[in-house]
Amino acid sequence: MLSPATPEEVIDWIMTDLTNNPRRNFFEVAKSLWNWEAGDKLAAINVPTLIMVGKEDNKTPPHFSRLLHEKIPNSKLVVVENCGHYLLMERPDIVNTEIIRFLKDAGY
């Protein structure tokens, strides 16, 4: 779930957050995601779309993000090295840089 490069303080925060959330919440979210199907709607997205994923994410592996990228016109895929599932927590520097670059490239 996390990259070996994840800083210890980030691991501590994530573990605290996970243990403080009721299990039922986790299972309800997982169930809703498991049953969610929008593949046929992705081609209708008509705005620039940034898709980011950690290369070592084993919860939502990069191949799922590649599928999104293939189906969403005008999308950009960024696979972040040395990063797992918690992209925003593990590599905020890269996330910020990529968002700024994406917005500039889109004319914002």
From TrEMBL:
<dbReference type="GO" id="GO:0046464">
    <property type="term" value="P:acylglycerol catabolic process"/>
</dbReference>
<dbReference type="GO" id="GO:0016020">
    <property type="term" value="C:membrane"/>
</dbReference>
<dbReference type="GO" id="GO:0047372">
    <property type="term" value="F:monoacylglycerol lipase activity"/>
</dbReference>
<dbReference type="InterPro" id="IPR029058">
    <property type="entry name" value="AB_hydrolase_fold"/>
</dbReference>
<dbReference type="InterPro" id="IPR050266">
    <property type="entry name" value="AB_hydrolase_sf"/>
</dbReference>
<dbReference type="InterPro" id="IPR000073">
    <property type="entry name" value="AB_hydrolase_1"/>
</dbReference>
<feature type="domain" description="AB hydrolase-1">
    <location>
        <begin position="32"/>
        <end position="92"/>
    </location>
</feature>
<protein>
    <recommendedName>
        <fullName>AB hydrolase-1 domain-containing protein</fullName>
    </recommendedName>
</protein>
<dbReference type="Pfam" id="PF00561">
    <property type="entry name" value="Abhydrolase_1"/>
</dbReference>
